[in-house]
Design goal:
Helix content is 72%, strand content 0%. With 315 residues, the chain is mainly α. The chain has 13 helices and no strands. The protein is elongated.
Length: 315
């Protein structure tokens, strides 16, 4: 409250300063932590190379409508002839319908990167939820969750994803769900192990003694301590998710109307590009998949090394 003349008293100004200062200190700590993380990350040459490659692909994907146009996948008004070899007009050649392969590869980056990112987020979210809750509650709940996790671990991930994609409608949502619900067990195991280690620390016992509930302990104490591991795991899973999307699309289980790198490989297989020697139909999408998967892996290893130097990952 203010005085009659509209001014604040010294006690009120002191109370406001005490309230604002912790928030300012928290923001300052976050900025310093981010700056320290970037300084450490820049020392990893492989991680910087991977980050640069990912930024390049992301920019191409975002600018695809401007670079190649939204009708690049139109088969009725293709600019070239079927299966033309690379030339100055078509640097990557053309596909079986006469479409520009360079434009298709750029446009396919949008779908492949989006599906890989969403599938990895879904996978990590499921694994983190199960890992944190199983490490916190223990007892019969942890036993049941870990047995389910073990079952998913021993089952071939690709076979489960194919089974789900077969019984569900063909769409990008199906691919995301099929990959996400079959690749979470590794994350769940890692997060549970980290949760068990965090739960033994003294401040967790103090929080319980002060009346902290399960949700308070998991969200305010356990989850922030496992997030570095979750972040590193996410970058590693994205590469696997992109490869899985390409595999499912190559097997014809994706939406046939959507252009992705895996769908281009499927089209090349159907056109007989392997037996007829039309290498330019196979190489560009295959190289794009390999480069993006390698880039995410390099970034993930660098993040692991920065967040946990004891891992000893080479630079």
């Amino acid at each position: 409250m203010t005085t009659e003349n509209g001014t604040t008293t010294p006690d009120q100004r002191k109370a406001v300063a005490v309230t604002v200062r912790p928030r300012a200190l928290a923001r300052q700590r976050r900025r310093r932590s981010a700056a320290r993380f970037w300084r450490e990350y820049r020392t990893h040459r492989a991680g910087v190379f991977g980050l640069g490659a990912l930024l390049l692909f992301a920019l191409l994907a975002l600018a695809a409508p401007l670079l190649v146009g939204s009708d690049v996948d139109n088969v009725t008004d293709a600019p070239g002839g079927p299966l033309e070899s690379p030339s100055t007009e078509f640097p990557f050649g053309t596909d079986q319908f006469g479409r520009n392969l360079l434009g298709l590869v750029i446009w396919g980056a949008r779908v492949s990167l989006l599906v890989g990112l969403l599938a990895a987020v879904l996978s990590v979210a499921i694994g983190t939820l199960i890992g944190v809750t199983a490490g916190h509650f223990r007892g019969w709940y942890a036993t049941v969750m870990m047995r389910i996790t073990d079952w998913f671990l021993v089952m071939p991930t690709l076979v489960l994803a194919i089974a789900l994609a077969t019984v569900m409608p063909r769409s990008l949502v199906t691919i995301v769900v099929a990959i996400g619900v079959t690749t979470w067990p590794t994350t769940a195991r890692l997060v549970r192990a980290q949760t068990l280690a965090v739960e033994t620390r003294p401040y967790i016992e103090r929080a319980r003694a002060l009346g902290g509930g399960h949700w308070h302990i998991m969200s305010r104490h356990v989850l922030p301590n496992v997030m570095p591991l979750v972040l590193a795991q996410t970058t590693l899973i994205i590469s696997s998710a992109i490869l899985a999307e390409a595999t499912l699309a190559f097997l014809g289980l994706s939406d046939p109307t959507v252009v992705s790198w895996g769908a281009l490989l499927q089209d090349a297989r159907e056109a007989g590009a392997v037996s007829s020697g039309h290498w330019w139909y196979l190489v560009p999408p295959g190289v794009a998949i390999a480069v993006v998967a390698l880039a995410f892996t390099l970034c993930g290893r660098a993040v692991e090394q920065v967040l946990n130097p004891r891992l000893g990952v080479s630079r």
